[in-house]
Design goal:
Order of helices and strands: EHHEEHHHEEHEEEHEEE
Mean pLDDT: 86
Radius of gyration: 30 Å
Structural class: alpha+beta
Distance between the termini: 63 Å
Strand content: 15-25%
Low-confidence stretches: none
Largest sheet: 8 strands, antiparallel
């Protein structure tokens, strides 16, 4: 005959507190094998150690009470259900680990920023990695040559009905302070075909301004100087993201929310990717 254990004994041999055992009973995870109607004493069978071990193991890897209860109540192919649930949890924990590693890196960066250049604050962002139709060209100067590339690229994407609703981007493969023979890349967002996940974007300093594009040069200088002050280095081309802009719309149509009638209404975000890992 298997011995029956009072709750204190069961707690001692399993390493699970009496308080937790009572909680598990309240949550319909593990009930005592017997409760004395006169004294209210709770008793457990030795074989219940196995169920308690399963509960403890699942809780140790962050299964919720509801998730544990669902697994314990699974009637069909319980072993398969356990394996599938645990593998899904493992994948979730890996994603959380990657996210935590990124947050630690960002915290390290912000701490360095606060010490080395406390007067300057740029927003930390991840650069977008959604699909783009890109056109890379050398142009004599900014202005009309760049506008012409954007117009042709927008019309091309529109003709194939691939345009996504995100903002277009201009990447400077030379410093934006350069005024002649510029290496530029126009990026028009397109709809994803869903065949592959997009990779994580680079970490970048970012700032947003309203009005004419001439403000980008000064922001670039400030970002570059700030990166140097923090002992960091750029990790990609400076980029302008056009949230509200002017467009000729020759062969395509831009959403009205993105259109500006005059430069004073423009809304532009600038980003400078940075290297944050050793």
């Amino acid at each position: 005959m298997n011995p029956i254990l009072r709750i204190g004994e069961f707690s001692m041999i399993t390493g699970v507190s009496v308080k937790t055992l009572r909680f598990y009973a309240e949550q319909d995870l593990l009930h005592p094998a017997h409760i004395d109607p006169d004294t209210g004493y709770r008793y457990y069978k030795v074989e219940q150690c196995e169920t308690l071990a399963l509960i403890a193991n699942l809780r140790a890897i962050d299964f919720s009470i509801a998730e544990v209860r669902s697994l314990l109540q699974c009637a069909d192919d319980r072993q398969s259900a356990y394996q599938k649930a645990i593998e899904n949890k493992r994948r979730s924990l890996v994603r959380e680990q990657e996210s935590l590693r990124e947050k630690i890196a960002w915290a390290k960066l912000l701490s360095k920023q606060a010490v080395d250049d406390p007067q300057t604050v740029f927003r930390l962002v991840q650069t977008t990695t959604e699909p783009f139709h890109t056109v890379r060209r050398h142009v004599a100067h900014l202005g009309e040559p760049v506008t012409a590339i954007f117009e042709l690229a927008e019309a091309d994407v529109a003709s194939r009905r691939q345009r996504a609703q995100a903002a277009p981007i201009l990447i400077f493969h030379d410093p934006p302070t350069k005024t002649e023979n510029l290496d530029l890349e126009v990026c028009i967002p397109v709809k994803s075909d869903g065949t592959a996940p997009q990779p994580a974007g680079a970490v970048a300093f970012a700032a947003t301004y309203g009005g004419g594009y001439q403000q980008s040069d000064e922001l670039y200088r400030r970002m570059r100087d700030h990166i140097e002050e923090c002992g960091l280095r750029p990790a990609g081309g400076f980029r302008e993201i056009y949230h509200r802009y002017g467009a000729q719309q020759d062969g395509y149509q831009t959403p009205s929310k993105n259109l500006a009638a005059a430069p004073i209404e423009y809304l532009t975000e600038v980003q400078l990717p940075i290297a944050i890992h050793e």
